Amino acid sequence: MSFTRRELPTIILTACGVLMLLAFFTPFVAFTTIKGTLTAWTIVISATSTWLGFAYMSYAQYRMLQRNPVLTQKIYFVTPFAFFLLFLVVGVSFPGDVSSPQYLWLLSSIYQQVGATVYAVMFFTLASSAYRTFTVASTEAVALLLGGTIYMLRQIPLFPAFAPWLVPLGEWILLVPNVGGGRGAVICAALAALVVGIRTLWGREITMVEV
Amino acid sequence: MMIRIGTYFDLILLIVLVAASWYYMNKALRGEKLPGLRKIPAIDAIMEGVGRSIEANKPVHYAMGASGGQLYSTLVSMTLTAIAMLRHISRLCARLGARLIVHMPYQAESIPLIEATAREGYLEEGKPEMFRLEDLRYYGQGSLTWSQGITSSFAQEGVGLNLEVGIFYSDCPISLEMAKIMGGLNVGGTGRWIMVYAFAMMCDYVFLGEEIYAAGAIVSENPLMMSGIIIEEVGKFFVFLLIAIGLILAAIGLDMGTIFSY
Hints:
The complex is a heterodimer.
Chain A: H1 2-25, H2 29-67, H3 71-93, H4 101-133, H5 139-155, H6 158-162, H7 166-201, H8 206-209
Helix pairs in contact in A: 1-2, 2-3, 5-7
Chain B: H1 8-29, H2 41-56, E1 60-63, H3 76-96, E2 100-103, H4 111-124, E3 136-137, H5 143-157, E4 161-166, H6 172-181, E5 185-190, H7 196-202, E6 205-208, H8 211-220, H9 223-251, H10 256-260
Helix pairs in contact in B: 1-9, 2-3, 3-4, 3-8, 5-6, 8-9
């Protein structure tokens, strides 16, 4: 039990990882071919496991309905399955399958519209959080407010017309402190990610071996 | 040529980190003392948030991002860190008696890992009966459905603590701010620098960039995991050395870019 649950997955993982590293660092075609095959397998795994997600979603919906059998919950329960069936039936019934005009109509008239609506909510969430963040409550908040205000004014054509110095100052904020800080953070995060990767290939990552 | 041209520098960096890993992981395995780590306020805030959830009789929400279940991309280390954090929060919820709702990413292949980790947290605390499979929520493909699912869960079931650690794209501004509007305590962070702004703006306590990896190691309470932070410091000193060499070379008129093109 321990071997199949701990050692075997670690061996497979390390072998795949080493093959990927060899494909990256060496010019041999054999490793590139193996990398291509392994990458293709990930698509297969991803596609088949979608049904696992569907099973989890169905179970959670069913249990929530059991716990709270009111009309609203019944509507919540039925809606996802109704739309699932609608898209499935339309997707396989017309010539062209998922490229058929009927399916594309569903996609553009329902799915994409709902998506656009949800993402429009982001405008309100960003506005309310920006208001909270720019409240001057500390020295850091003052620095953030100043930097943000200068750059925002630089972006509005009216203000640089009256204060031309906003343009180089705004550019300086964008290209010097912003890029410098960002690169430092990216390098640190990349190093940390590398360390986690090495530990995983070594079979010492507890999130992978203890489960 | 055995080594592909253009990867020499990457190989040197990898060798440095592998050597440091070998040295410090062995040190940790031998039980030798490692340098101390500073406290990260966001870790203490998790405990505070769980307590607050129990007092308010509201659930704890955990999310690792709509696309936070990546097991074969360059971001896989963030997924593993998010899994380490899931283990911590599930243990904490089991110990203190809070209800935990996990909003799973759309990469369904990561579901077995997520379920096993959450279940293990309850088992470790001796309360397997508290684990509820229906509290592992899956919302289908794409971040659109995920954002809708998580926000509707906040609205219907309430939110005491909202912990979000992992891979986030444009999904986090919606979920974080909605949790805040619903009166929840937001704690979280991502290693994706481009989205750190959202966490800095919307979270009460934030893990800034690489801090998520440090936090994952600290909450694991495992010396081997904590040695990873020291190994990362070795990498940082190596980068500082490269910057110093680059400055000297630039001062004498040599282009470092040409050297590293090999």
